UniProtKB/TrEMBL annotation:
This is Insulinase family protein. GO terms for biological process: protein processing. Residues 464-714 form the Peptidase M16C associated domain. One of its GO terms (molecular function) is metalloendopeptidase activity. It comes from the Bacteria.
């Protein structure tokens, strides 16, 4: 349809249209005449369509009102009366993305689907949710999703509970999260950014039902709405639907939601804040030092992109001069940067982790002195060129992993649109790059440093210091507050509170009526694609090495991986292989300093990376194939340089620079600690698996708790172990990068493959050529139920075993069961009734099965829920419509769209795991034909897995100690 500016279509007037060439789209900016809603449509040929509706939601305090409302509106609405339409859609749609997000000043509700009817269904449920939620009729939604006083018996102590309350307790257990919250609080004390939109657990209980409803009335109006649609849908049909079903019933109104720039400080401010550590931890080397700046304006496209590049130049590249200066000064153990561009006013932070409070002045002297020196001496032009090229490659590649690129573009539009500028500003970057490239011949970035950092008084010097007993002290204060509150209640009020708690729990436990469930739109099984997409995979040969070639159009980008068999590495050296992967490309080679090799990679390639991965054979029990993956990408015409650099790194990396290796090990220790604190659910799963699976034990030594301990011990005894470390790294490198030990994985079109064949010849001189000797690994496996004690306020509880070891077989039915248990049983029991942020299960093709919970206030109760899953499955009931729903939700994950590079990687994974197209088709057939009887038949499997009683919990030290009878060992991991 040809649309003209000024034209009115279904109540929407087209204000402006124009090509957005950088993303091969045409943009159409509309306003709804009646309601004032704004709509931006990006038309293109992408069938992974994206819709989102967003609202400007400035937080007026730290009760978490925007965040709680984001959860609450998805708990039933005018047309869709089920208690949780969101989870019903997760169970039973073909969505490729389904979520909601609270930012510091906006709330977004995005969905994506490739199926046109599914896309319309998802859009309908979300629009009804935001404009007509059930929150006005049902106060229990706030109690469940936000907070409430929990009292099951009059004699019990009152407790706080609620999903967001527990989620934020978990978030505020992480020192990194505490730091970022305090930075924003002190950098913007007098505007909305000083408030915690997600909610501070100490403040959340101040939120009242009246304030909750008033906030929705005020901000969830079309006049405050930003609607975004992307893809190859029918825009006229979408506009007609949105107008007739929703917007025509609203009148426009004046909105008081404007967001303003914070007045600049007259001088820098200094602040010290505490954060909790466990009783076993030492306070030494646990302080965070930071200097933080309010910089720029999100509406400025040049600043937006240029400062992101400057951040990379100063602190993220291995050649980053400010990071190098801080590491050379030996302040702390890890240097981090943070640059938040999702606000009207950005904030930029220079952070040192693992320091001590008395080092603050020296830290500031190094930061300020280094910035002055950088301005005086100028930034290395190769570093600038590399940083600009890396940023441009990333934008043009538009590979955002499992996230639809239309979603990422939608989030970018809000970085200007929310502040009354055009939504396409940050999508149109060609002209901006031309301006920024002037930095290659001018002092462009040096002037930015001078303006935004050295001469900027709007800065906060924030020191975060460790404090033992902080959680216990706060817990006691909360208990005291609640005891005092309870003492003020009359007997009748106590009984009313008990009844309120009982009513909520009964409501949570009660199933939705058939009528309410059937109000939610659903596709049929006929909408499911009949066959699993056959990923191209052709076996060829090059340099006498096997090549797995996946032919895909990749827009002139050649993706080349090399998978080297790691079974050449002796068992005692496995952790050193994982360390080697972290060092390669970040330390010097014979011909390049580490800064130079980094610059060369950024100038000429899309990146060269190294990682350890393990592939478990689908057919041969207990067989697995650990690989060192060398991953590279480059524009086709720069592919020769890609292979030259790959070869240089694999053959000529040296381990002479003791200081550099020490710095990387300290950084690794710091980053692994962050993972343990923020991703405890998956850390617990890996450590659990290492006690019953040799394949999992291999990976535990490369990335889990065991690897963390290896790195921490290396850091502790580095001086004594350095020479031995050099020898072991050299040995692993020499054994691994062997022509007879590797397989190429190539993704691209025919011309890309020709470039690969021609240019990869330079690799031959860099690889050894010897018959590899494979090692047969034997890991002693034993049950060791372990608690990993941290300062967290919540738990991550994992329980599981390998069902193949117990005589069961993997089938596609288990994938449907995974959907049902994760999104039905665990969602209801652990999240809705228990107040945890989340829980999940998994049944893998290799037989590993686990349950795990996330930000969970409970421990025993959660284990009991896991143990009762058998009974739930044994008594499971569902009618034909419900079974179709679960099958749709399962297939949506199987058929999730992939980028060309991801398809090439997936095809290689299937090859390494001995998975054929026939296996995939058989699994698909089992999924789509799953019956209630097939699911009930898995009850014995769950019973027997749970009966093995293998357990791992990452969580609060005192909670673990109270339940020490569950564990063989409690490990206070952070010293």
């Amino acid at each position: 349809m040809k649309l003209e500016e000024g034209q009115i279509l279904h109540g929407f007037q087209l204000q402006e249209k124009g090509a957005v060439e950088e993303i091969n789209s045409d943009g159409y900016l509309f306003v709804h005449k009646n309601s004032g809603a704004k709509l931006y449509y990006l038309a293109n040929d992408d069938d992974n369509k994206v819709f989102s509706i967003s609202f400007r939601t400035p937080p007026t305090d730290s009760t978490g009102l925007p965040h709680i409302l984001e959860h609450a509106v998805l708990c039933g609405s005018r047309k869709f009366k089920a208690k949780d339409p969101f989870i019903e859609l997760a169970k039973g749609s073909l969505n490729t993305f389904l979520n909601a997000m609270t930012f510091s000043d906006k709330t977004m509700y995005p969905i994506a689907s490739q199926n046109p009817q599914d896309f319309k269904n998802l859009m309908d449920v979300y629009l009804d949710a935001v404009f007509y939620p059930n929150i006005y009729e049902d106060p229990d939604i706030l109690r469940q999703e936000g907070w409430y006083h929990e009292l099951e018996n009059p004699s019990d102590d009152i407790k706080y509970n609620g999903v967001v309350y527990n989620e934020m307790k978990g978030a505020f257990s992480s020192p990194d999260q505490i730091l970022f919250r305090k930075i924003q609080e002190h950098l913007f004390p007098d505007n909305i950014y000083g408030n915690e939109s997600g909610g501070d657990p100490d403040v959340i209980p101040e939120l009242t039902y009246e304030d909750f409803l008033d906030y929705h009335r005020k901000f969830y109006h079309p006049s405050n709405a930003y609607i975004y649609i992307y893809g190859n849908g029918d825009i006229e049909e979408h506009l007609q639907f949105i107008n007739e079903e929703y917007l025509k019933d609203f009148e426009g109104k004046e909105m008081d939601s404007a967001i303003s720039i914070h007045p600049p400080f007259n001088s820098p401010r200094r602040v010290t804040e505490p954060y909790p550590i466990s009783d076993q931890e030492n306070e030494k080397n646990k302080t965070y030092l930071s200097v933080n700046y309010a910089v720029g304006d999100s509406r400025d496209p040049e600043f937006y992109l240029a400062f992101d590049i400057l951040n990379h130049i100063l602190l993220e590249s291995p050649a980053a001069p400010l990071k190098k200066a801080l590491l050379d000064a030996e302040i702390g153990e890890d240097v981090l940067s943070s640059y938040d561009e999702s606000l009207l006013q950005h904030n930029f932070s220079v952070i040192v982790k693992g320091a001590n409070p008395e080092e603050e002045d020296r830290f500031l002297n190094v930061v300020y002195g280094s910035l002055e020196k950088i301005i005086e001496e100028g930034i290395d032009k190769k570093l600038i060129e590399g940083a600009i090229n890396a940023a441009e490659f990333e934008l043009r590649e538009a590979d955002y992993g499992r996230y639809p690129k239309g979603l990422i573009y939608g989030i970018k539009t809000m970085d200007t649109w929310l502040y009354d500028e055009h939504p396409s500003v940050h999508l149109q970057y060609d002209k901006v790059f031309k301006t920024i490239r002037k930095a290659l011949t001018t002092d462009y970035f040096e002037k930015m440093i001078e303006k935004y950092l050295l001469n900027n008084n709007h800065q906060v010097i924030l020191t975060l210091v460790p404090e033992k007993g902080m959680i216990q002290k706060r817990d006691e204060e909360v208990k005291k507050e609640l005891r005092s509150y309870k003492e003020q209640l009359s007997e009748e009020e106590l009984d009313a509170l008990v009844q309120e708690t009982k009513t909520l729990k009964e409501k949570q436990a009660a199933p939705d009526s058939k009528e309410d469930l059937e109000s939610i739109p659903q596709l049929s099984r006929e909408d499911i694609r009949k066959r699993t997409e056959k990923l191209p995979r052709e076996i060829r040969s090059n340099l006498d090495m096997k090549v797995l070639y996946a032919e895909h159009y990749t827009n002139k980008i050649l993706y080349t991986d090399i998978a080297f068999d790691l079974r050449v590495v002796p068992q005692e050296l496995i952790p050193y292989a994982a360390l080697l992967a972290k060092l390669l490309g970040r330390v010097a080679t014979k011909h390049y300093g580490y800064e130079d090799i980094s610059n060369e990679m950024e100038i000429y390639t899309g990146g060269i990376g190294f990682r350890v991965e393990n592939f478990v054979d689908r057919k041969k029990e207990g067989q697995y194939y650990p690989k060192m993956i060398v991953q590279g990408s480059a524009l086709r015409d720069k592919s020769r340089r890609l292979f030259e650099l790959m070869g240089e790194i694999m053959e000529n990396t040296t381990f002479e620079n003791k200081k550099r290796i020490r710095d990387i090990i300290k950084e690794m220790k710091s980053r692994l600690e962050m993972v343990i604190q923020s991703e405890g659910h998956m850390v617990a799963v890996r450590h659990l698996g290492a006690h019953y699976s040799e394949a999992e034990m291999f990976m535990e030594q490369c990335s889990g708790i065991t690897f963390y301990k290896f790195i921490a011990a290396l850091d502790e005894d580095f001086e004594q172990r350095f020479e031995d470390l050099q020898q072991k790294l050299q040995r692993v490198k020499a054994l691994t990068f062997n022509k007879q030990n590797g397989i190429f994985v190539v993704t691209g079109d025919g011309e890309d493959y020709q470039a690969f064949e021609k240019n990869s010849k330079v690799l031959e001189e860099h690889l050894t050529d010897e018959a590899p000797k494979l090692v047969d690994y034997h890991f002693p496996l034993k049950q060791n139920n372990i608690g990993i004690a941290t300062s967290s306020k919540v738990q991550y509880v994992a329980k599981g075993y390998n069902f193949k070891e117990l005589g069961y077989e993997y089938t596609g039915h288990l994938q449907v069961l995974k959907t049902i248990i994760s999104l039905n049983y665990l969602w209801n029991k652990i999240r809705i009734e228990g107040g945890a942020y989340g829980a999940m299960t998994n049944f893998s093709r290799n037989g590993n099965m686990f349950f795990t919970s996330y930000r969970d206030p409970h421990l025993n109760k959660t284990i009991d829920t896991y143990n009762k899953a058998e009974a739930y499955v044994r008594d499971f009931e569902a009618d034909e419509r419900e079974m179709t729903k679960y099958i749709l939700g399962t297939i949506s994950k199987v058929d999730a769209p992939m980028t060309p590079s991801a398809k090439g990687e997936k095809a290689a994974t299937h090859y390494f795991c001995n998975i054929t197209q026939e296996d995939l088709e058989k699994e698909r057939e089992e999924i789509v034909t799953t019956t209630v009887e097939d699911l009930r038949a898995q009850a014995d499997l769950i019973r027997d897995v749970m009966a093995k009683d293998y357990l791992c919990v990452v969580g609060n030290e005192h909670k673990l100690e109270e339940n020490k009878h569950l564990f063989n060992e409690i490990d206070a991991i952070f010293k």
